[in-house]
């Protein structure tokens, strides 16, 4: 089977988790015997564009003629069985659905965010959940609030793109929703449930930790929507040392808050940014991993990393996090009082859930299992076309 994987990679310095996931999935598909034909663009390319290309760049999310011509040539030469679309913005465009169908190639789309409706794809604005554009034919609030890259002009282009491509999305042959919340978002958008499969991303197996851990780990971007302020508010409600140690890994605008809290409390340590190997070592050293996002976080990789390492998780009831946690942790409301109670419960019960966490990874998030499910989706779409 031949599959074209289309993905617009995020620029250097931006969150790269999606890039890592797509790369890993392509390698897994190739390892399973499929012919994988990458159709990749990177936002880093924008810096090399000519003046004429930069003038036309705002129109790229709507069509991007150069990308469509390149894709058409690839499809004509290789005659793949299916095109698998991940992120189309800004240099690929949802127009690839039309291009693929013009060549008789069905399209599977993994939905990583809420951008069928929301210009930045987050359902989050000014420190709170925002769904003002849900149900609207044209996302005027996105322009008013400059939701896309802080620019009215770029927000207007993205709003126009969303309006133009509402019909395009409805012609995708099959959607992969990373969690049940993404599936509900697609149904709300008007996609029939029979054209949606819930299939999360997987990560390579790090192996369960060989010794019990202690304390808690927060690892992620130090930004408001990731919940560091909420976590530290909840942590302050407990006496120093009563929960063990909280280690904070990551970097971002809230780094000064992490540093000042660590300076003020002996049970908080700011570790700083780490690579994947270092983060996994911190997971192994901890008894429980915390994901306290206040936005509808789709699929935080740190939760999968924790389960792979045999560590239960304490998460807020936002986005896909309850789906990921399952029976391997605690789900609380995103307020300080609820999270403080969750911290106490997790401090007392984390050790008992270590084996449950590892089993949840093996049964639901192992790449071997997920790649077989993905190939089954490809085969089903191919056979129907």
From TrEMBL:
InterPro entries: Glyco_trans_4-like_N (IPR028098), Glycosyltransferase_grp1 (IPR050194). This is Glycosyltransferase family 4 protein. Residues 63-202 form the Glycosyltransferase subfamily 4-like N-terminal domain. It comes from Dactylosporangium roseum. It comes from the Bacteria. Keywords: Glycosyltransferase, Transferase.
């Amino acid at each position: 089977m031949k599959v074209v994987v289309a993905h617009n990679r995020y620029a250097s310095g931006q969150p790269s988790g999606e890039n890592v996931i797509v790369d890993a999935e392509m390698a897994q598909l190739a390892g399973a015997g499929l012919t994988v034909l990458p159709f990749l663009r990177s936002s880093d390319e924008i810096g090399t564009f000519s003046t004429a290309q930069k003038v036309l760049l705002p129109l790229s999310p709507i069509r991007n003629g150069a990308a469509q011509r390149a894709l058409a040539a690839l499809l004509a030469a290789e005659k793949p069985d299916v095109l698998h679309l991940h992120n189309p913005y800004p240099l690929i465009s949802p127009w690839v659905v039309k291009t693929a169908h013009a060549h008789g190639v069905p399209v599977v789309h993994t939905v990583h965010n809420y951008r069928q409706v929301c210009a930045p794809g987050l359902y989050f604005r000014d420190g709170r959940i925002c769904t003002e554009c849900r149900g609207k034919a044209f996302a005027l609030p996105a322009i008013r609030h400059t939701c896309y890259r802080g620019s009215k002009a770029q927000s207007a282009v993205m709003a126009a793109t969303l309006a133009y491509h509402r019909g395009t999305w409805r012609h995708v042959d099959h959607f992969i929703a990373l969690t049940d919340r993404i599936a509900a978002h697609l149904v709300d958008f008007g996609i029939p449930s029979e054209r949606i499969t819930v299939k999360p991303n997987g990560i390579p197996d790090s192996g369960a930790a060989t010794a019990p851990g202690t304390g808690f780990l927060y690892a992620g971007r130090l930004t408001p929507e990731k919940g560091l302020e909420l976590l530290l508010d909840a942590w302050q409600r407990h006496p120093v040392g009563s929960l063990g140690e909280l280690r904070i890994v990551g970097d971002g605008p809230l780094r000064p808050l992490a540093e000042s809290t660590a300076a003020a409390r002996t049970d908080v340590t700011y570790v700083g940014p780490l690579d994947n190997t270092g983060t996994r070592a911190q997971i192994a050293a901890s008894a429980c991993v915390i994901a306290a996002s206040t936005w509808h976080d789709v699929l935080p990789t740190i939760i999968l990393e924790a389960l792979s390492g045999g560590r239960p998780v304490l998460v807020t009831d936002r986005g896909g996090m309850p789906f990921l946690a399952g029976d391997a942790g605690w789900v609380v409301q995103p307020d300080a009082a609820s999270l403080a109670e969750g911290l106490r419960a997790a401090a007392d019960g984390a050790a008992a859930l270590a084996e449950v966490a590892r089993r949840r990874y093996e049964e639901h998030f192992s790449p071997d299992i997920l790649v077989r499910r993905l190939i089954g989706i490809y085969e089903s779409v191919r056979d129907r076309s």
